[in-house]
Fold:
Amino acid sequence: MRFRHPDGSTVHLAYCTNVHPAETLDGVLAQLRDHCEPVRRRLGRDRLGIGLWLARDAAHALVTDPSALRGLRTELEHRGLEVVTLNGFPYEGFGAEEVKYRVYQPDWADPERLAHTTDLARVLAQLLPDDVTEGSISTLPLAWRTAYDQERATAAHTALTTLAERLDALHELTGRSLRIGLEPEPGCTVETTRDALAPLTAIGHDRIGICVDTCHLATSFEDPHTALDALAQARVPIVKSQLSAALHAEHPHLPEVRAALAVFDEPRFLHQTRTLTAAGLRGTDDLGEALAGDALPDASPWRAHFHVPLHAAPAAPLTSTLPVLRAALTRLVGGPHPLTRHLEVETYTWQALPPELRPRARAQLVDGIAAELTLARDLLTDLGLKELP
Structure:
């Protein structure tokens, strides 16, 4: 979906396909047929943007087989779909029964991460629509915090610098300008936007910036205006923003609130949980840890890294952090010029929701994704953007 900003520039809105598990190129093609095109039709649009997730095997198949890459582009066009952004965070196995800490491997100190992201950039340069010259890829925020020392930090810095040089070369070769955004996430070396300032300033290349995920922003209790102002002051480019909402519990000390939270404690993904205390941010790596005894102070609200559907806040006594998303979006695209032109709805947890909230059929998932995009569209038009055909 495309929107015209009042300054005349085009803002792209997509939804991320990591909600549909697929590790191979055949699986990706099936996604386009079974999910993405039906979402487009449900919205009544001739064109729909998708934030494509390509696992390692799918990306490698495309970059080593030009005919397969041409075939994917043809299939996208045939189904009324377009790609200006990729989700390069998960490497493989994102549809497994248990993902948890595996999603952070390989990290930016491992050569595999550089190789995979380079593949993604080469693929994206060929998938961009003819009238689009700028693409974006979101990626792991360096590494999970526990195994990251100075030696690995140096290796990660070198890898990102090498990537920037490759993106420069790709621009010269194809005329397509691609940028990478580190995506701050609770528990990682770069957990907050503030954590991103030092490494990104040290790299100092405009092709390496940040991806602002509004669920992660909210989970870490970051104020959107303060965070985005700091990025602007440091001249850190906002490559893209993922529009998402976290789980919010206003009174976690109450038994009924803890019972409601426990329903969202599931085995597939990590749901890092945070609370803001007088001494600063406190947290656990997963929701189950927070609910076990006194691992996390409960005098103040809790927020959990659980991407809840944008249009459907959890039932009381829980809610979502949609207000944080609204505030961030206002700052991102509501001013005289957009701070980013790539927006992506990323609710990958539909099948991890409590059983009674999960889609029971493919059509229900299509309806849910379409409803999320409709909400995002309405937020953008309320800010003065005009939806384009």
Q: What stands out?
A: The first helix runs from residue 25 to 43. Residues 224 and 328 are 5 Å apart (CA to CA). The radius of gyration is 20 Å. The chain is about 40% helix and 20% strand.
